[in-house]
Design brief:
Low-confidence stretches: none
CATH architecture of the largest domain: 4-Layer Sandwich
Number of helices: 9
Strand content: 15-25%
CATH superfamily of the largest domain: Ribonuclease Z/Hydroxyacylglutathione hydrolase-like
Structural class: alpha/beta
Number of domains: 2
Helix content: 25-40%
Strand order of the largest sheet: 1-2-3-4-5-6
Shape: globular
CATH class of the largest domain: Alpha Beta
Number of strands: 14
Radius of gyration: 18 Å
Bound molecules: zinc ion
Mean pLDDT: 97
CATH topology of the largest domain: Metallo-beta-lactamase, Chain A
Amino acid sequence: MNVAPEVTPIPCLKDNYAYLLRCPSTGQTGVVDPSVAQPVLKVLRDKGWGLDCIFNTHHHWDHVGGNEELKQQFPSVRIFGHQSDEGRIPGLTDGVQDGQVVGFGAIRGFVIHNPGHTTGAITYVWGDAAFTGDTLFAAGCGRIFEGSPQDMYSSLHQKIGSLPPETRLYFGHEYTEKNLEFCLDVEPNNHKAHVLLKEVRKIRSEGKFTTPSTISQEFATNPFMRTKELEIQKRVRELEPDADLSPVSVFRVLREYKNRF
Ligand SMILES: [Zn+2]
């Protein structure tokens, strides 16, 4: 069934999101990136649901930290992650690879392997919903810990970026406001980013979430998806006068600047 699951964002720790998923036809459930178990268990209790699957986007502790406690509560839970993260994702039962069909209940989707943040980073796609972990954020992207700028650029542009424009992007951290401030530093005349920042500040002041974004929103407001924009390239020249202006080089300069922004 090529439909998206029902999605409930669960804020965890300081700014992480876990996402509780439910198949509307079978009632089976999953959770994406439970950094800690307790907030997830609370929502499951409130709803009266069990847990069938854990879907980890990568091995960092603030995405897998709840795996073992959830497994204690639900011993038959299946735990998904990239096959190369065997030994790094606690309790991994289902190592997956690029393009592999993955689902739960009646829901079937697929995995995108998008290395860069980590070598085993993946995105799960079900219907029009994608779970990008720390690879693509609203108006930003993850740090490059285990890959090259070329890896991360390809993951964002050729892989995630080729999903349909209306795809909803459920990302791993609530960084949207800061990311848009960065966007306006490197592209001050991005009108859509100005409008979105205003909306985001209102949303945050009401204690609400900015997740999900969409692919089309990212191509409009995410500097890491806009490396061909002349205004951004001009800023990159200011930051690094010798930089060539190939897309990957612009991406690298932006990413390094963001690390110290
Ligand atoms: Zn991470």
